[in-house]
Amino acid sequence: MNVLEKIVTSVNSFSKSERKVADVILANPQTTIHSSIAALAKMADVSEPTVNRFCRRLDTKGFPDFKLHLAQSLANGTPYVNRHVEEEDGPEAYTAKIFESTMAALDTARQRVDINTVNRAVDVLTQAKKISFFGLGASASVAHDAQNKFFRFNVPVVCFDDIVMQRMSAINSAEGDVVVCISHTGRTKNLCDIAAIARENDATVIGITAYDSPLAKECTLVLSLDVPEDTDMYMPMASRVAQLVLIDILATGFTLRRGSKFRENLKKVKDSLRGSRFDKKDFNN
Amino acid sequence: MNVLEKIVTSVNSFSKSERKVADVILANPQTTIHSSIAALAKMADVSEPTVNRFCRRLDTKGFPDFKLHLAQSLANGTPYVNRHVEEEDGPEAYTAKIFESTMAALDTARQRVDINTVNRAVDVLTQAKKISFFGLGASASVAHDAQNKFFRFNVPVVCFDDIVMQRMSAINSAEGDVVVCISHTGRTKNLCDIAAIARENDATVIGITAYDSPLAKECTLVLSLDVPEDTDMYMPMASRVAQLVLIDILATGFTLRRGSKFRENLKKVKDSLRGSRFDKKDFNN
DNA sequence: GAATAACCTGTAACTAAATTACAGTTTGCG
DNA sequence: CGCAAACTGTAATTTAGTTACAGGTTATTC
Fold first, then answer.
1. What is the band of B22 on the pLDDT scale with cuts at 50, 70, 90?
2. Please, what sign has the CA dihedral across residues B45, B46, B52, B57?
3. Cα–Cα distance for residue pair B51/B54, rounded to 1 Å
4. CA B181, C1' D2: Å apart?
5. Is the minimum distance from the CB of B38 to strand C below 7 Å?
6. Residue A16: which nucleotide is closest by CA–C1'?
7. Contact between the CB of A15 and strand D at under 7 Å
8. Within a 13 Å sphere around the CA of A105, how many CA atoms are in the beta-carbon half?
């Protein structure tokens, strides 16, 4: 784990002054690596030894060593970590935090996603007679988005966010059909039922859901993301973005598998929108 | 250019002793970053000032600064950049590329979003009598998602992805109502009409769209993201993710503005889902 | 509710590390 | 061969970081 993440995960074990130090570092990581211990202490309004103790708590040998680690964290791709939004955050702070934690979530998703399963899912999708996307609540909009993408491929696609329709659709499914069930928790009862019904009717069920969940158990193939969700806000945020990116990946895999001629089709679909749009150049009139 | 590369390219301009230092560093870069100038000088069999001079020759402020740069070079990180998917990419490659370019897009969005406008949008939203989210095509699912979020706030929210319904809804809008129009290009004619109609009926219109677009001209407030879109695939990808994150930000700003009591409500909404879900622990039975 | 213990935090002394100044040495060129 | 320029090391100096200790705070127990 990199130092920045470590700071974030262990904020709770910090003392008052140590937290001040943590805040300053998280706010200006780039400045920190070019500051002396005295400068940093002043910024955080604590004494120098406190900064030193802070460094040791993070399993570094001292301040210089800490800076080294910090420098590596910053160099190592993103300085983005999952920072929670606080009560007293202003617009600037919460905007930055949400962007950053979303990016951090994507980063972990990227590391955890199983490429083999992605590849198999693409296999299955390219050979599907019909593709159905099902999601409920927040995942409904992901399903909706997936439909929008796969629809362009000129494949029969359906998408329902209504349990009754989903159920009917699942019952009507047959061999060669692919059902994609989307649920962050994987514990939505109705969706588990749908997955089970689809399987009974010989459809291939792909789950975009938590690995070790009831829904996962009902699926032929499980695409798990396991991103940390910010629970403070009681709203699904990062998970949903990660799901969307996964949809993008599946769609991309799909088009690549179909070859370059196929991509001409996509261009046609896009061009077909032109009539409904203002021209790019002279919309000012 | 990173320091390691710099050392390699400029070996020729080094003096005899400096080259000794370069050799030692290139041979054990990891050791170097954890050594003192004295240790390194001994390893290279030169004096300490020589090492120091070596560091300065590489445009660093001194030995400690040099170690920082070296540490960053060593951190095996690929910064996130917008890498296009290629024809011959395997699953591993395109998965990584899509994750990375999405993250890169979020990073630019983060830098370009105007905090003041965000804040004003939050202002407007918190005071809204009714909030409407309108989007077409790919942006429809973003609107859908926004509805899912704002619905939890116990505010009247509607969301339509149907032009006729949007039109009717816009005509019925009144002062105090807020209409959020979502469109990446901002050139979808129908949506521009909707925005105009809503404005004529005294609603406040927030546009999540390109800055200098026809739609933007019809809006009271424009939230622009300007992310680079991967046009190769002929599908909206990054733009949509950025829009979603922006929705997250607005929703977060909304809840923060409403205070902590309000957040209890959100918890209630979330808890209300419990009945429809399998228990977290014992779903195995 | 008071006493004690554990723990945080800062001041000041100390140590280590890096830098500068300077002087000796080498190298290159006329 | 001699002079100048550049390189390198020694020693002094400065700077930065660490340790030791003491005062103060908070938690805990009787």
1. confident
2. negative
3. 5
4. 85
5. yes
6. C8
7. no
8. 28
SS3 B136: coil
Q: Are B159 and B134 in contact (CB under 8 A)?
A: yes
Q: A248 vs chain B: nearest CA distance in angstroms? A: 7
Residue of B nearest to A32 (CA): B68
B204-209 and B221-223 beta bridge pairing: parallel
Nucleotide D8: nearest residue by CA–C1'? B50
Residue B113 to residues B123, B230, B244, Cα–Cα distance (Å): 17, 19, 13
Residue pLDDT, tens place only, B71-93:
887 765 445 555 677 777 888 88
**pLDDT exceeds 80 at position B281:** no
- What are B171's two structure tokens? 């005509």
Which residue in A203, A199, A181, A200 sits closest to A191, CA to CA?
A181
Strand partners, B182: B135, B208
Nearest beta carbon to residue B255 from set A233, A249, A269: A233
Say if CB B216 and CB B207 are below 8 A apart: yes
The set of strand D positions with any atom below 7 Å of a protein CB reads 6-11, 15-20
A125: Cβ contacts below 8 Å, ≥ 6 apart: A131, A150, A178, A206, A250, A253, A254
Task: Tell me how far apart the alpha carbons of residues B223 and B117 are, in angstroms, rounded to a whole number.
Answer: 7
* Token pair for B31: 């050791």
Distances in whole angstroms, Cα of residue B73 to Cα of each of A29, A104, B9: 17, 21, 15
- List, for residues B216-242, the tens digit of each pLDDT value: 999 999 998 877 765 555 567 788 899
Q: What is the pTM of this model?
A: 0.71
Token pair recorded at residue B212: 């200098």
Helix (H, G, I), strand (E, B) or coil at B189: helix
The pLDDT, as a whole number, for residue B283 is: 38
CA angle B121, B122, B126 (to 5 degrees): 120
**C1’ C21 / CA B48, Å:** 14
